[in-house]
Amino acid sequence: MPKKRSSKGRLEEMLDSRRRAEQGNGSRGSHYRGGREDDGTRTGFQNNGRDGNMFVMEEQPFSSSRTHDNPFTSTTAGASSRSRGSNRNSGSRPRRHSLTAQLNASIDLGTGRRTSKVSVNGADGLGPGDDDEDDDEMILLAEEPEHDPVLHRHRSFSPGILGRLGIGRDARPDFRYDDYSTIDWARDTALELKRKKESVRFQGYISQAWDAASGWVLMGAIGVLCGVFAGFIDIGAEWLSDIKEGVCPRAFWLSRKHCCWAEELAEQRDTCELWKSWGEMAGYSIEDDARLAGASFAVRYFAYMGWAALLAGICALLVVRISPYAAGSGIPEVKTILSGFIIRGYFSLWTLAVKALGMVAAVAAGLSLGKEGPLVHVACCCGNALSYLFAKYRLNEAKRREVLSGASAAGVSVAFGAPVGGVLFSLEEVSYYFPHKTMWRSFFAAMVGAVVLSNLNPFLSGHLVKFYVEFDYPWHWFELIPFIIIGVFGGLYGAFFNRFNLNWCSFRNQSALRKYGITEVVCVALVTALLSFPNRFTRSSAADTIAALFSECAPGSVDPLCDDDRSIIMGDLLLACAFKALITIFTFGIKAPAGLFIPTMFVGATFGRVIGMVVEDIVASHESVSMIANACPNPDTCITPGLYAMVGAAATLGGVTRMTVSLVVIMFELTGGLTYILPLMLAVMISKWVGDAFNRDGIYDRHIRLKGFPFLDTKEEFSFATRAVDVMQPPVSADEPPVVLPCDGLTVAGLEDIIRNHTFTGFPIVNNRRDMLPRGYLIRSDALDALAEYKHDPDCDMSAPVQFFEDDAEETSFSRAVGDAMPSEQALDVTAAVHRDVFQVSHTMVMPTVIELFRRMGIRQAIVMREGRLVGILTKKDVIKHMHVMTARHANVQYH
Amino acid sequence: MPKKRSSKGRLEEMLDSRRRAEQGNGSRGSHYRGGREDDGTRTGFQNNGRDGNMFVMEEQPFSSSRTHDNPFTSTTAGASSRSRGSNRNSGSRPRRHSLTAQLNASIDLGTGRRTSKVSVNGADGLGPGDDDEDDDEMILLAEEPEHDPVLHRHRSFSPGILGRLGIGRDARPDFRYDDYSTIDWARDTALELKRKKESVRFQGYISQAWDAASGWVLMGAIGVLCGVFAGFIDIGAEWLSDIKEGVCPRAFWLSRKHCCWAEELAEQRDTCELWKSWGEMAGYSIEDDARLAGASFAVRYFAYMGWAALLAGICALLVVRISPYAAGSGIPEVKTILSGFIIRGYFSLWTLAVKALGMVAAVAAGLSLGKEGPLVHVACCCGNALSYLFAKYRLNEAKRREVLSGASAAGVSVAFGAPVGGVLFSLEEVSYYFPHKTMWRSFFAAMVGAVVLSNLNPFLSGHLVKFYVEFDYPWHWFELIPFIIIGVFGGLYGAFFNRFNLNWCSFRNQSALRKYGITEVVCVALVTALLSFPNRFTRSSAADTIAALFSECAPGSVDPLCDDDRSIIMGDLLLACAFKALITIFTFGIKAPAGLFIPTMFVGATFGRVIGMVVEDIVASHESVSMIANACPNPDTCITPGLYAMVGAAATLGGVTRMTVSLVVIMFELTGGLTYILPLMLAVMISKWVGDAFNRDGIYDRHIRLKGFPFLDTKEEFSFATRAVDVMQPPVSADEPPVVLPCDGLTVAGLEDIIRNHTFTGFPIVNNRRDMLPRGYLIRSDALDALAEYKHDPDCDMSAPVQFFEDDAEETSFSRAVGDAMPSEQALDVTAAVHRDVFQVSHTMVMPTVIELFRRMGIRQAIVMREGRLVGILTKKDVIKHMHVMTARHANVQYH
């Protein structure tokens, strides 16, 4: 049903031009300007709206760095970035998607005319035979013209079976989306529908049952693999950590606990004769005189630092040379990827291997980092690799994200031995979409992972984590006061840590430091070891200390925490707390796999334990106060300092990550009882409130913004009554029509011209530039593919029309507009690449609703309509930018 | 930017009419017909699409009943319903919304022209003074014309403070939505934005802080109230249950346990000399000879039945006479209301009182029902009542639903002593929208409720439920086989129960039985008591029996389960299981508050315990089999039959409700340890799969459909590639344009005509009927209000134009079209009632995406666009209908 406006009269054209003029001049009534207070700022973004992959945050003071080694750092701000961004888009486009634009130079024998046809899987043509087309595609790619800078692309080698499994950082390109681009959930839904329909048609009952069961099989396999990896990492880290202090001469590959496992008494299993410290190995027995003891101490100190530097160096080498993606905790990237972003190779098998090995080395080196966050990354790598075994998930980015949600639940489950907490962590912190089906499967994967790990029994304790505690002493209502103090401390620490860690990371990115990644890791490890060794609480691994802090002093315990000299203990604890708090700022962000949970818990647990000891003293010295006397018949066992340590750990974690339910549930699963859930909840709640008063987001969200990912936070509340028309591109003030592809009379040359001159990632298709009635949407890369294929034909005609729709009437309309000189059989056929289902929003729609639409539907762009006419385009990046600008501007009146 | 088409040339008009003709004739290309295989069925719905509140399911065999006493029952099917539905809409419209259409007969002094103006809170005019406008509104209502059948409405009395709190079933009308209508989440979002903006402008810092904190205060208050109600219900039901068997002569208001609380030995607290059975009270001591024992038995039997009938009668009287909404479990209605439906009075204080008292009586009467589901309803009533104390929640239906989500979490939390399980239950089963903020607050409410209840200590055991168990015996891998058998049983039972309960409920609705609600309850109670008394496992309350089934036989236990005569025990258990399974079918649905959890757990626990005993026997007789010998060093303590009972309870619950994660977490919190989570999960998983193989939905979803609520299930997967154009109204095949309100030249008489002739709940506004460019949406009731107000003016001019937009150019365009004869100051001004932000979908959009849009954005309707032109309207009901039709049609090829 084409619009036949080409033969319209003069009057109508006059009216149209007048309408256009009104549109541009901002004569749209007062509500258009109502919510627009940000013209000044936004002009800097105006043309930057939809170009390339850069995304620059204004509010990060140090983010405009120009690094090249870190692929995530947002490179530029302002005008210069724009040209660079577009260069990158046009100049060298690495690893272009290829299955998307499966190019067929087909000859239609029926009509005899030759059409260059581009077919897109999302919209069409995913038959059961698609798996075999990789080779065809390679041949087609080899025939591509190299001379055209717009169309130049790297050749990728045939992926093969290893490539399919993601081996090699870039070996397995995703065939449908560009790297650093956002997926389209609605499109992938349609793709899955298509696949199901096809499979119903072609497969037997057994295949269908397998297809239905494959999700469960996959989640189970992920659980098993996560459990195995976690066990390997736990055991490996344990052994290498102990190597810093000594060795089992009988069998050097045994950790201290495994070495002493033969001892009959359980208490002796931690320290036995079979295990030799490096001092003893060097011949200085600890029982010798003071001079020898001093020498022994020196040897042990030296060995400790030497091992730390060596292990840290190995770790950094692995990360820098083999897989830079293995650095950091990975949770910011996992969040971004689950929200629909593509970072190719982030979950590859190389990353998996380097992350697992590097984590063992980094933990063993005594760096102030944990393995909980990286385990989520490892779990996602496992999930990604395994999902390639199933066509259902291999070919569908949106479906694969369901698998990754479950995998991250399994990762947390094995990290903390908390399956329910893992599922809630995935739901609350990591996942973007979490339908009920995914929740149930996540739970399954988390359960399987926990069961597998508990059967591996890495700590020989029957528990999945070192700091599992089980005590059931009651707490008293008056203790809520110290718990509140701990909660406030947690919030303050979170705000402090988030601020200075972010500042340091920004500084690193723009200083010369970023060139010396390996040196930095080794130096941090040396400083950490140097300062850790003297303090008995920082010398052993952080998890061991946390376990000691959580547990109670049994009578006659040899634990250093249970000494009689309480003031020295408290001093050491506070020193350890301050040291960890400072060193972690410099550690989180170095080129090593680094989780935040353990150091953060360490800080909280030491502080909490100190508070607990103080309260213990107060109670002991105020036995006669009636409140205390009523609550505690026996003042000696009245206070449980271990509980204070746990509350402290929860509070600091809450302050740093701003997690809520999942954090409480994880702590609840660590203690195995409902008794302490109220103190834990109180501390987490207060620490979140206090932290939020200083800075808004958790550390992961801040790192996401530092790295410049286009992440639309599901938790952030946006409550400004701006409207779609204030955010869309082009802005109303620009007085220019949006860049569109008109159906009537667009030639191939015209299309190429538009694509060359504008770097937007996609273009709306309208009936014509006068009426602007929307008909569809064409992704830039699809258009480029079609153009490339078209121009590959030596006798291509650049003045031929572009055919957007199969409807024949369209061509008639075109012919009439352009004249009969054009042979229509030369048309560039992009019908299969056109998306007809782009979301439409009214220009008056309030932004909170628009934002919910983007969040909940996971769309990349929407077209803005005014009375049936397209007046602008809204992209995810525009929306995110608007949210940040408005929130930063109105921070003083914003409240929740 | 008005469209000035009124002066278009002849050519353009010709083109337009041709375009319209093409549109109607179905010449739209093949894809339009592709997915449409349901023309035949759908024609029955064609005009029924948007009318009234009726919603009839085709697949429920008995649902076309014509009850009048049950306000939920869908009354009709087919053509007769349509006329009735519209009668109901037009004839007597009870409790019309009024604050929505706050009628202002305002005189604009500036221009001197008189405009009847209708202003809508959602779009405009919610100032801080809105609370005071109820009285103004009453005056305006009193002046309304009574003679017009379309505009006739009931007068509601001024609500006052009790009305505000929801006292009286219908005393507090919601001022903005009709009863039995669906709320518009996007509109309420805008409303909240507006409110925040106003409050920023007018309030001080303290008020703002209070506004921000009020959500937490409210959730805390809900938790406290829930805990108190649960405690009251627990204690009351305990006492009345015991009254059936005997009395505490010392103080008749004490339950057996409270009566015996003075006993020193804990074991004697359940049976002591102070407590007298009715046999003893009648003078027959149990130690007397056989004849007297027989008489004692007869007296006790008679007293048991008498009390049961009496209590059941009281309960039914309360429910039928005072609050019919208190019947049933309430979870189907809570789900529907949380999804955005309005059922006025469902959460009123009368309902709360009747539900709480009725529940005590019903449980005490020994009916086969539990208090867990109704506690969710009670919690929501508390939440609803308390939310009226806060303007933020009182005036916003969408915000109030966040509160109700949290309240249902608190309800489950106090029902099972499982705060985490409660939150997950709310998330998985009940809530529709569950943002992170709500989750955290729900958790808070659930925690507070659990803490309050545990301080009330209703069972004198320190636990929140009777059947809390704490054992930690390991289970063995070979036991997974019996667990799988139990899972299969659970699934089969669920399918069986769901099917026959639904059939019986449908039968009740259409038979004469529905008129004898009270008699039915008493009869069911008598039959239950008659059959319960002889069996020792059914005589005591179901919760007690479940507690006994879950726990283990300690040596020397007096528990009847631990007798040596195992075959008699097993026989009794199986009899109890079969009896409960059958009687529950007839019980769930009677006019009494009735939860499903307890009877379902009873069935599962008895069956599971029997299986456990069988396995125990097998292990005892096959000690020498190597697998058993390896796993169990001591065969006597190898098997834990109590664990089998727990697994059985989880399996039947899974089969009946089809819950997953939340069910496992609730069971996990009941046992307080991770040890048994794998068996529980396995059983729930298998029972869900087996159940799904027979019938698709859980009992709650089936009851929702039986009752005909427009509930768009978030869990249901829809995977048919139909398109928006196949579902929209009017259908393409109808060859008629959609009913719209054109901006150009619609007179007041024309508007009234359209509203009288069509029963749709709303009408899209377009620029004109030729171009069909969408401009907004007008809700039927707003239009009716505006018309009523307009016609109230004696010299109103029915041929005056309707003014939809404030833009002056609009009127100019109108004047030009209608001519200058019309004085524009007489225009009917509906500008404030027009929604400009109605969602638009492309006609080619696949239905799974459209369904996700409806689900995730919570919208009531969307307009279907084809190239910028409105071609149809999609309502939530159309979408639900389509889903059911397609799923029923393709049940044979559908798989997940």
Q: Can you put this structure into words, describing what you see?
A:
2 copies of one chain form a homodimer. In chain A, strand 1 and strand 2 form a beta hairpin. Chain A is mostly helical and 896 residues long. Chain A has 4 domains: 6-180, no CATH class; 217-456, Clc chloride channel (Orthogonal Bundle), CATH 1.10.3080.10; 477-706, Clc chloride channel, CATH 1.10.3080; 724-894, CBS-domain. Chain A is elongated and about 100 Å long. In chain A, the strands form 4 sheets. Chain A has a 4-stranded mixed sheet with strand order 1-2-9-8. In chain A, helix 17 packs across helix 18 (436-456) and helix 22 crosses helix 26 (641-657). The interface between A and B is large, with 94 and 94 residues.
Which features would summarize this protein structure in a list?
896 residues; voltage-gated chloride channel activity (chains A, B); homodimer; transmembrane helix (chains A, B); disordered N terminus; Clc chloride channel; four-stranded mixed sheet; ClC (chains A, B); disordered C terminus; 6% strand; Chloride channel protein (chains A, B)
